Amino acid sequence: MNLKYKLTALLLLNLFYKPVSAQSDHDLLTYADPRIGTAHSRWFYFTPGAVPFGMAKAAPSTNGSYGNKSGWEAVGYDERHNSIEGFANFHEFQIGGVVFAPSTGKLQTLAGSLEHPETGYRSTFDHKDEVATPGYYSVLLKDYGIKAELTATKRVAFHRYTFPKSTQANILFDIGHQQGESGEVSDAQVYLTKDGRIEGYVITKPVYVQKYQPGADVKMYFSAVASKRPAKFGTFTGAQITEGSKSTTGKGAGLYLTFNTHEKESITIKAGLSYTSIANARLNLNKEAANLSFDQAKTQALNTWGSYLGRIRVTSDNKANLTKFYTGLYHALSGRGLASDVNGAYPKNDGGIGQIPLDKNHVPLHNHYNTDAIWGAFWNLTQLWAVAYPEYYSDWVKSQLLVYKDSGWLADGIANSRYVSGVGTNFVSLAIAAAYTSGIRDFDVKTAYQAALKNELEFQNRPFGAGKSDLDRFLKYGYVNHLDSGSGASERWQFSASHTLEYAFSSYAVGQWARLLNKTADYQKLTTPSNAWKTIFDPATKFIRPKDEQGKFISNFNPKQAWRGFQEGNAWQYTFYVPQNPNALIDAIGNTDFNNRLDSIFTVSEKNKFGGGTTLDAFSGLEGLYNHGNQPNLHTSWLFNFSGKPSLTQKWVRKIMDEFYGTEGIHGYGYGQDEDQGQLGAWYVMASMGIFDVKGFTDASPEIGLSAPIFKTIRIKGNKKYFSGKDFEIVTLNNNTENQYVQYFSLNGKPLRAPFMKLKDIQNGGKLVVQMGKMPKDVY
Question: What Gene Ontology terms describe where this protein resides (cellular component) (predicted)?
Answer without folding.
Answer: cytosol
